[in-house]
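User:
I would dearly like some help making sense of a protein record. Take your time, and here it is.
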Amino acid sequence: MNRLGLPRLTLARQLSLLIAGSVVLAVLVVGGLGALNLRKGFREYLQARDDEQLMRLVALIEQHAASDPDFAWMRQDPEPMRALMDEFNGRAPRQRPPRPLEPPGRRGEPAPPSPPPPPQGPGGAGNLGERLLIRDAQGQRLAGRPQPQGVPRTTRAIKVQGQEVAFADLLAEPEPEGVDARFLQRQTRQLLWAALGTIAVALLAAWGLAARWSRPLRALQKATRDIARGKRGTLLEPTGALEIAELMDDVNTMTRELARLEQARRTWIAQISHELRTPLSVLRGEMEALEDGARQPTPQLLSSLREEVMQLNRLVDDLHTLSVADMGGMRCTFRDADAHTCLHRVAERLEGAAQQRGMTLLLPPAEAMAPIPVRWDLGRIEQLLTNLLNNSLRYTDAPGTIAVDWKHDGRWLTLTVDDSAPGVSPADRKELFEPLFRADRARQRQSAQDGPQGSGLGLSIVRAIVRAHRGTVDANASPLGGLQIRVHIPLQADRSPA
């Protein structure tokens, strides 16, 4: 129901009504204009026909007037109009009876009206004599019926040697009747039937088109309802118009992404449970051993317990950082600084750890690079580079090489961290930045001498920091034989578009 309390129509019905209404309106307009044009055209045709016949009739009268400009031939004929129309229509003129001479003093007076000629059929020249009046130069009637006032007429002058000697007045054609009326009625009926047929076909076509257009929309509706209920296994077959097919393809993409996110959520929960259970199990076992008296609280045991607690603390801190970043709330305090000084300081801090593990850490020379003014959250950037270097130190075979480099083009800075073998497969490189993901080889080679175990969230935090600085990060094969992490960050991170 809408605001007016009326029931809402389905899209198919709305489309049907829209198409049908448009077609009905178009048919009514075209049909009405066609009917008006038919009647107007028919009248124009009759007018043109009358003009053509009147001109021929005037030419015939002018032939007679050339030898008798006083129109005695017409004044002496008791039925001049009938004789004139017989000659005009090509019929043999009847024998005209002699007319007695007029008394003196009455010459030129109008003759008594002659009886009208019998009708000769509708249309053509048949009723021409009934609508024709011939007047002399003084306006006196020579032949024809007197014409009523206010009726449209056509007047043509009858000339002899350029002088007007008489006039012919022809009344406009009256309303069609007989054959003409039947012709107009027949054409009007045909227009009406054509309009009704067009409307019927339009209604059927509108219903069919609306049903065809609404079918994929109903499928979309069902799919979105299934998604809302948690059923995400059915994919749509894109059909219909281009926009609808693209929308169905987008819904399929959304369905696949939701399924992937659901699987990632379950994997995330399982991995977090696993990561938490391992140090908790160690702590529980050591504490039970202490309670049973099987072990003594030596400094070494306490240090081991402390390391397990620290591992739990690191994991919880990293989970909190990622959770805040996922909610769009990673807080960054941007300030002006020198990127070269910041990055070089963080890398130098890890040179000792690299040497202890048998690694060679290659850095750009500090004195050879000019300052790079940036506006970053330096604490987050230091955390980013620290996580990248720790990841390389943890998963690179000794003796190995780790190379750090950064360059800029005036707007963006590109930071790359390359390490030597072992490398990461292309399939694993796509998942490296997912939380708690570790390649199989990386899991297998983690040992005690490698130092504190990572939380598995380091690269995920790197990605979150890069996004907070409106940059990008990707993983590729390194020319050194291992992994290359490449980060692009705008120099003015707080002023660049997201």
User: Anything to note?
Assistant: The chain has three domains: 8-92+125-230, 232-329, 330-490.
